[in-house]
Amino acid sequence: MGGMTLVIAEGQSAAVKGTGTPTGVWWALLVALLGSTVVAGLITTTVGSLRASATSRRDGYAQAVKSLIARTEYAYRVRRRVSDEPDVLAALASRGNDLQEQLAACRTWVQAESRTVGRVYEEVLADLDAKVNPAAADAWTQPPVATAAGMNLSGWGPGDQWPHIIRLENAISFRFGWRRILPPVIWRRQVWREDPGRG
Question: Which of 13, 46, 129, 139 has its CA 20 to 30 A from that of 152?
Fold first, then answer.
């Protein structure tokens, strides 16, 4: 009896020892599985966050460019007004105020998103204003357009401002995709005005 008990005890001991290794393997597999799930979750979350950030950045820059284009077109709106009635003038003045507010918001956003692109934005805005402001001032002094033919301004206006917009778009392109990882020192001179005093 005593010997039999010893044999059973030894068998139980052997069984426990035998299951120790598989249990360790199962724990390792479980930890690896959970670890890979956590890693996959982190990767998914990170990729989703990057996509959301890129979408938000794209929308912000689209609005910034849209505001510059509206700034350029404002002089033409004033020049093509159909009357000097108070409601027409009030609508144009209100639009001008709205454009100023939009530009202020866009300038702030772009500066916060990228100081380098912010400097390009300021340069482009200054270049546009150099042509648009005199044209807008002149437009207010011109009589309202009374005929359909008068809508054809025959070359009047601030002229082609697309080269400035394209320069800004070139700078914005460095805020997306693989170019986003490039430090500004590598690409900023491509989009800044030629100025030997810039660092």
Answer: 129
